[in-house]
Amino acid sequence: MRNSKIKKKSMKKCVVDIRYHAAVGNYSRILVVLTSHQGERKMEETKRSGMSKDQFWNLIEKAKEVCGTDLDASAVWIKQQLFYMTPEDVLQFHNLVYSYRDAAYKYGLWTAAGILMETGCSDDSFSDFRMWLIAQGKDVYLNALKDPDSLSGVTPYGYCSFESLGYISSQVYSAMKGKNIYQDSTARMQMESYEQVIRDIVYHPMIEYPLELPEAMVVYPKLCERHLSEQVRNAPQKVRTWNVSRTDIRRMMARGNAAIKKMQEQGAKAPEAVRSVRKGTVR
User: Fold this and answer.
1) pLDDT exceeds cutoff 60 at 9
2) Measured between alpha carbons, how far is 168 from 134 in angstroms, rounded to an integer?
3) Does an H or E element contain 12, and which?
4) Lower CB count within 10 Å: N or C terminus of the chain?
5) Strands 202-203 and 274-275
6) pLDDT tier for residue 16 given thresholds of 50, 70 and 90
């Protein structure tokens, strides 16, 4: 709606200017006005578009192909590629990488991350893990949200942490434009980017719930079989992975346990993964 109003205002000004110059016989200025208006429209279209989701994933997957498991090299390679692009592309890369990170903020994935990393996963570590997950490519990322147990087929490396992926775009944008990227990355742009991202995501039905290891072994059996030691698998109740002093954690954990109990009583398999229709929190 706002863009439509801006277009109408710009067009109205263009028409007024043309009528004025025609009235005073200054016909050469009419061409200048028309050329200027066309330039403004092209600039606005460029700002609105920027990098697409497909271009984003192509860049991420090419970095993995070129650099393999060397995350430092991947960061350098991605930065080099962004310098060949427009500031609008860099800005949209920034919005997309954080939108994909935010869309993966799920307790169920957090549970799986702690198991995959084999050392647990703190708040900061989970943020860095989600950046690392993005760096594995589109298929691995989407599959992990559809079924975190699919991470059993992913080989961990680099401590499953890629913190620097979140800084690359801001560094490039600052070099290009001489200002902080958040001066141009508005809340509206971030939300629009997030809404585009979650359209492609299908979430596992248990992904909202933080699970302790006994429950995780039921929901994510392959992952636990691969990354939990035999000693832990024999007595998973002895290992605590969540801060149960937090009310929200206790509440969601209770809901998850109830869902698992109901599923076991009915002897049913886990329900199909579903698309999320709720808007998440953007940074």
Assistant:
1) no
2) 14
3) helix 2-23
4) N
5) antiparallel
6) low
